[in-house]
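Board notes (copied after class):
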Amino acid sequence: MKSHILIAVSMIIGGANQGLSQKIETGSIEQNSTYEYHIKKRNQNRTGGWVAVGGGVGLIVFGVANNFDKTFCMFECEGVDPNEGIWPAYVGAASVVGSIPLFVAARKHGKAAKLEMSGDPVVFKSYGQSALGFSLKLNLN
């Protein structure tokens, strides 16, 4: 009986000391450094987004211009494929659509930087949603 009490007391005291030794220091992360991190990420994402949009628009213009004479053929139209040179426009459209997540991330980091300056805690929302599912199992034996 005495050994059980001794073990329980040592666990309580040891656990309390263990909890104190693993204390997370919130002062180790400076507010200014997280603000600068979010501003840096915002600027990087915004720059990447504009580069993707600019390159995509350039490819769209190049693809349409490259395919213009094939689409609106006036002379010698036999054997001309109207979709032969349009592929750069498709790649450009994909680049423009691919820039959207970069602008969304830039906005997220801009909001986080504003929250850091105001002193409020930064919490990113999780947009996980549940959806109905359907399952079908076929036994082919």
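Comment from the instructor: The two ends are 63 Å apart (CA to CA). The helical segments are 2-21, 31-71, 87-98, 100-118.
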